[in-house]
């Protein structure tokens, strides 16, 4: 089903099949639009390292939670007059490697739709980027959904998740909703994520202690290429199936104590690999250690609380809804904490009406 706007441009409001649209000659002179929203995610069991870089197959599986309140909103508008894709992020025109990464991803979408049409891409994050808050995950998840929808492609959740992971590995986990596991099909090698529990399964809260809003000097993509140089990576990967099962059961059974133990262990193991890589990567800052130490002390007081860090200094402090206000107040009192962002488990990536606020 199509509708015609006042500007005489076609916008797709429903999609029925995964079919190239080049056969519709009228589309060759029209613009096609779609807007999507996706949430970043925080991994309890981390993805770090690639077994197959070309196919972006991870060295190990991972489990995460989508973070509500934090989101990337992306609009893709295909235009027959464009010679190449343009990309605007938070109001700034992106060039160089950032633009190339997006253009290469759009090439994948174009191949699916059998088109050479280029697009204006406009994206906005309501949280700091490049600071270990998974902005690339929500960014490429939103781009995958908006880009395919704008071309009239109706992908299954599995297909969309598999597509998104070529932009950023963890982006596949921002396609499904709630608590999510990243899998690899042992027969085909297809890499995708599935929901293992809906967003309302467990009333957790991610209280993110922001210690820096600056871009990290070494991004996740470059950092994980060094994972194999650490003598600890092999041991980390060898034990991952046990950690995945422990985490999976902890989520399904709402067992916070088990979740806390395995989450902290997995985070520490990943950062140990980073710090023993060649060259070493030190994402932790003194303030990061201060927050982690505070969390351990609060556990002794009986609070249901744990911590985890992605590739950055900011600390994700996971707790339950009932005590989250107290934890937020305590985090604010730690020197070096610039702000505390909060988010409950969130739903899946979704399309938004055109011109809809996020």
Rg on CA atoms, Å: 21 Å
Q: What is the N-to-C succession of helices and strands?
A: EEEEEEEEEEHEHHEEEHHHHHEEHEE
Q: Count all strands and give the number.
A: 18
Q: Mind telling me which CATH architecture of the largest domain this is?
A: 2-Layer Sandwich
| Sheet with most strands | 6 strands, mixed
Averaged pLDDT, please?
Answer: 88
Give descriptors for this structure:
about 350 residues, alpha+beta, Ribosomal Protein S5, domain 2, Alpha-Beta Plaits, 2 domains, 6-stranded mixed sheet, 4-stranded antiparallel sheet, 9 helices
Please characterize this protein's 3D structure.
By secondary structure, this protein is an alpha+beta fold. It has 2 domains: 175 residues, Ribosomal Protein S5, domain 2 (2-Layer Sandwich); 140 residues, GHMP kinase, C-terminal domain (Alpha-Beta Plaits, 2-Layer Sandwich). Helix content is 31%, strand content 25%. The protein has 9 helices and 18 strands. The strands form 5 sheets. The chain has a 6-stranded mixed sheet. It has a 4-stranded antiparallel sheet with strand order 4-7-12-13. α1 runs parallel beside α2, α2 crosses α3 and α6 runs antiparallel to α7. The N terminus is likely disordered.
């Amino acid at each position: 089903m199509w509708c015609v706007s006042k500007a005489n441009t076609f916008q797709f409001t429903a999609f029925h099949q995964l079919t190239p649209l080049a056969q519709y000659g009228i589309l060759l002179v029209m613009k096609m639009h779609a807007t999507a929203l996706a949430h970043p995610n925080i991994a309890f069991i981390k993805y770090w390292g690639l077994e197959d870089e070309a196919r972006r197959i991870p060295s190990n599986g991972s489990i995460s939670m989508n973070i509500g309140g934090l989101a990337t909103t992306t609009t893709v508008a295909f235009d027959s007059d464009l010679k190449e894709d343009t990309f605007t992020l938070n109001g700034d025109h992106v060039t160089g490697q950032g633009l190339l990464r997006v253009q290469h991803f759009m090439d994948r979408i174009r191949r699916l739709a059998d088109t050479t049409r280029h697009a204006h891409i406009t994206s906005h994050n309501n949280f700091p980027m490049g600071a270990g808050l998974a902005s690339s995950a929500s960014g490429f998840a939103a781009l995958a959904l908006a880009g395919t929808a704008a071309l009239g492609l109706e992908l299954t959740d599995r297909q969309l998740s598999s597509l998104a992971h070529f932009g950023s590995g963890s982006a596949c986990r921002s396609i499904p909703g709630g608590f999510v596991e990243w899998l690899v099909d042992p027969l085909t090698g297809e890499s995708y994520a599935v929901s293992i529990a809906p967003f309302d399964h467990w009333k957790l809260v991610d209280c993110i202690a922001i210690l820096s809003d600056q871009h990290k000097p070494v991004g996740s993509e470059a950092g994980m290429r060094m994972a194999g140089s650490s003598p600890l990576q092999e041991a980390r990967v060898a034990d991952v199936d046990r950690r995945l099962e422990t985490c999976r059961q902890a989520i399904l059974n709402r067992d916070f104590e088990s979740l806390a133990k395995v989450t902290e262990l997995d985070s520490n193991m990943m950062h140990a690999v980073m710090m023993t890589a060649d060259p070493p990567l030190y994402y932790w800052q003194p303030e990061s250690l201060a927050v982690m130490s505070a969390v351990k002390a609060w556990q002794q007081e009986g609070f249901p609380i744990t911590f985890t860090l992605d590739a950055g200094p900011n600390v994700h402090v996971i707790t339950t809804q009932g005590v989250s206000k107290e934890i937020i107040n305590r985090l604010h009192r730690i020197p070096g904490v610039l702000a505390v962002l909060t988010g409950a488990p969130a739903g899946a990536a979704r399309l938004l009406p055109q011109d809809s606020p996020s």
